[in-house]
Amino acid sequence: MDRFRDPADLLAVLGDWMTGRGPLYRKLAAALRHAVQDGALLPGDRLPSERDLAGLLAVSRSTVVAAYDQLRSEGLVDSRQGSGTRVTERPGTPRPDGRVRGGTATPIFQRLIDGPGDLISLAFATEPAVDGLQECLLDLVRDDLPALTSDTGYHPRGLPVLLEALAERFTAMGLPTSTDQLLVTTGATQALVLAAQLYLRPGATVIVESPSWAGCLDVFRASGATLKGIPLDEEGMDVGALGKALADSPAALVYVTPTFHNPTGTLMSASRRRRIAEIAHRHEVPVLEDIAYAARLRDEQFPAPLAAFAHGAEVLTVGSLAKVVWVGLRIGWIRAPAAITERLARLKALADLGSPVLDQALAARLLPRLTELSQERAPALRRRLEHLCAQLSKGLPEWRWRVPDGGSALWVDLSGVDAQVFAQVALRHGVEVVPGAAMDPSGAHDSFLRVPYTFEEETLTELVHRLRGAWADLRGHGPAAVAAPQGG
């Protein structure tokens, strides 16, 4: 079976190939050459046709023809009538252990690996650390460091003082919690990975929101799971569609992001949380709720976590400090029934024997102030959202979006234009976007993209300027042309 029968599957391999200097065909050839040498493209892999790849990359067909010609001249690919263009049967670059390198990442994880470069990357919505973090760290070093460094350092479940702070916070949120129901993780992503290890086997079905956060979908896919998307309305996951999906076939897990949904920014209502818990209980399927995305725009009271409405349903709740405090403080947690937490703790111990103790101690100091810190950030986040909306309304009036309830990004509809094609044009204008199809297990929402508003206003203005240039390029000129290469 051809791995790249769908040309879109090649995008993660190519990355930001359009950046830098030189003719487009040479940059495309260089990206494909690197993929072959790195093992991301394997011997025998069939590449898309010149026409299909040109359409996806928003370049002229002659650009792809010239790139393939260059690779053929180097012996990296060959083309045969009826079988297309394939990577030649040459060995990949070996690792020190003798294995061939390979594997790809979505644009989100790939951007972390490659670094931002000169692009404005929309792959992540991040902000600098909160103002009080440095003072809190200095207080920790002054007051607690001697006791912490004389400790064994091994706390697979989590530092006791942090577990106690988490239990108090969950209880204050309307979800009574004891420390034996909690596990500290190295960020929310590890919590998702541990839950996937516990519940998922190859071929298992995970029900997710459609759209959903691409990084989380990757975690479930890595476990060999099949994803089934459920649409959203203004209150969250559609309970009618959820009930029908579970009645039609069993699922191993239901994954939701109620506060706030990523990428739409929807705040799930309390009644919707209750209904999802009831449906999950009826069909005996566990629910994994992710509330790590809880960046607020206003001073408002959130509904209690979905687990507060469980009434017999098995609900796991994931959170972290990343969005409120700093993404560099890699402390997350998972709250679950005590028996489930025990099993997760064993998986955690196998993974790393416990998260860093100093980070946990710092998190314990910050946790009682989490609501206050979130409220302090809200006015600046709201100003940036308003600025971005004003700039988009002025510069790109064809685009459509719903103002989010919270979170860190707009979910923008490009009025029917394929966001994967637009993404390639945007790269030429210095912007990396994540097409909506990457956030939908079915590949739908292909005319959407996620636009974070966590940048400073000056950067947001420049971002819209670049996006406007890319939009004009795509709508006004079509695919970019390339001059045919001269000589060899």
UniProtKB/TrEMBL annotation:
Any coiled-coil regions, as ranges: none
Superkingdom in the source lineage: Bacteria
Annotated stretches, region: Disordered: 76-103
Keywords, sorted A to Z: Aminotransferase, DNA-binding, Pyridoxal phosphate, Transcription, Transcription regulation, Transferase
Family matches, as SMART domains: HTH_GNTR
Keyword flag Hydrolase: no
GO terms for MF: transaminase activity
Protein family according to the UniProt entry: In the C-terminal section; belongs to the class-I pyridoxal-phosphate-dependent aminotransferase family.
Protein name, as recorded: PLP-dependent aminotransferase family protein
Organism this protein belongs to: Actinomadura meridiana
